[in-house]
Amino acid sequence: MTGTPEFQQRLESMESLIREIEATGDPNVRTAARELMQLVMELHGNGLERILEIVRAESNLSTLEGMCRDELVSSLLVLYNIHPLSLETRVHQAIETANRKMRSRDATVELLGIDDGAVRLNLKANGHGPALKEVVEAAIYQTAPDITSLVIDGAEEKQAFLPLEMLLATRTAT
Question: Do 110 and 51 belong to one domain?
């Protein structure tokens, strides 16, 4: 859903309206617009939180799991800080997704740690580092956009040859 042209068009329209509001010379208009947005966000957040409570109360775990798997719903739950799955669980899900996508290239990614929202991974890319780094980043940011930072060790390409400068430096040193 979030990748559809309709969704992207809505985002662009929202950005355009935000730019118009920010460009207005009247600080009262900007303040009122921010307050209105805050109230709408609070209303939506409370409504979404109530939906989760109802689903849990009815022990409808398959519905809850389906909501967590849905890209748009999951993004909203993260936005409102009410996602039922922990950040760590969502990062593990993203790693599983990335590993499935990279299996054909005999590559894997593993979690080294999560510290205060900062995620550190190790990528074994078999010479496909930059391309597979994008696969890993996409999986992580789609499932856990609320991480504070992402470091992927092993994603850089290893040089298969020595740079000319290294050869010349070695030759002049002997």
Answer: no
Domain boundary among 50, 79, 108: 79
**Domain assignment of residue 137, given as a range:** 87-153
Q: What is this structure's pTM?
A: 0.70
What is the per-residue DSSP string for 110-165?
EEEEEETTEEEEEEE-TT-HHHHHHHHHHHHHHH-TT-SEEEEET-SPPPSS--HH
Q: Are residues 95 and 136 in the same domain?
A: yes
- Residue reference for tokens 């966000």: 41
Give residue for tokens 């997704």: 97
If asked whether residues 75 and 9 sit together in one domain, one would say yes
DSSP assignment letter at 3 = T
Tell me the sheet residues that pair with 151.
Answer: 120
pLDDT of 60 higher than 50: yes
